[in-house]
Write a structure and sequence with these properties.
Elements: E1 4-8, E2 29-30, E3 33-34, H1 35-45, E4 50-55, H2 59-66, E5 69-70, E6 73-79, H3 85-95, E7 101-106, E8 109-111, H4 115-124, E9 129-139, E10 144-147, E11 153-157, E12 162-175, H5 190-195, E13 204-208, E14 213-215, H6 219-228
Parallel strand pairs: 1-4, 1-7, 4-6, 9-13
Antiparallel strand pairs: 2-3, 5-6, 7-12, 8-14, 9-12, 10-11
Length: 234
Amino acid sequence: MLDTAIILAGGFGTRLKSEVKDLPKPMAPVNGKPFLEYVLKYCSANGITKCILSVGYKAEVIQNYFGNKFLNIELKYCVEENPLGTGGAINASMKIADAEELLILNGDTFFNVSVNEMYSFHKKNNSDLSIALKPMKNFDRYGIVNNEKDFSISGFEEKVFRKEGNINGGVYIADKKIMNHFPSSEIFSFEKDFLETKIGQVKMKGFVFDNYFIDIGIPEDYQKAQNEFIRFAY
C-alpha cells in the first residue's frame, strides 16, 4: 500500500511574477484556493495519508496555511535553507520519510494519474522508479521520454517542436533505495543529474497515462487552470 508522498513546493515562480507576486509558486491562487490545495486533495483521493512538503522560498506561507494536517493527510516539512535543486530536495525529503516506497509530485503541476494503477504497474514490473508519462501532440515546451516495449526508459530528448511524444508528467513512484545512486553533491537536478545519467543502472519504467495534465509555470497555463479546475472538486 502506497501511503506517503513527497511534494516539491519550493519554487520561486519567476515566470509567474506578472500574475502572482510574493508567493511560492504552488501557492498561486486558482479559483480562490492555492494550487497546492488541489494537489493535496488529489493525494487524499488517491489514498495518501502522509506527505512531506519540500519547501524553500517563503516556506512560512505554506506552513502557516496548511499546518500539520490537511484533510486526512499528516503533513511534515522539509525546509531548504538554500535552494537544493529538484534532486537535492527529493534526497533531503527521502531522508526524513519513514516509508520505503514514495509517490513524488511537483507542487506546480497537476497530472490526474490513478496512483493505484501506477503502483500496480510499479510492482508488476519490479521497477525501482516509475515515471508517469503524458502523451502530447504539437508541442515544444517539453522534452520527451523514450521507452521500450517492456516499458524501460531508454532516453530523454531535449525540447524541440514535435508532432507527438510522451513527456515526463512529473509524477513518480520511487523505491527509497534509488538514493544509493544519487550524486554525492547536496545540490543537484533530479532530471539532469539523476534520471538522464542513470539509465541502465536504475530500473526505470515509463507508465503512460493519458489523462488531464497542466503545468502552471507560465501565465497562459496558469490562466487556463482558472477555468479548467472547476472540475476537480474531489
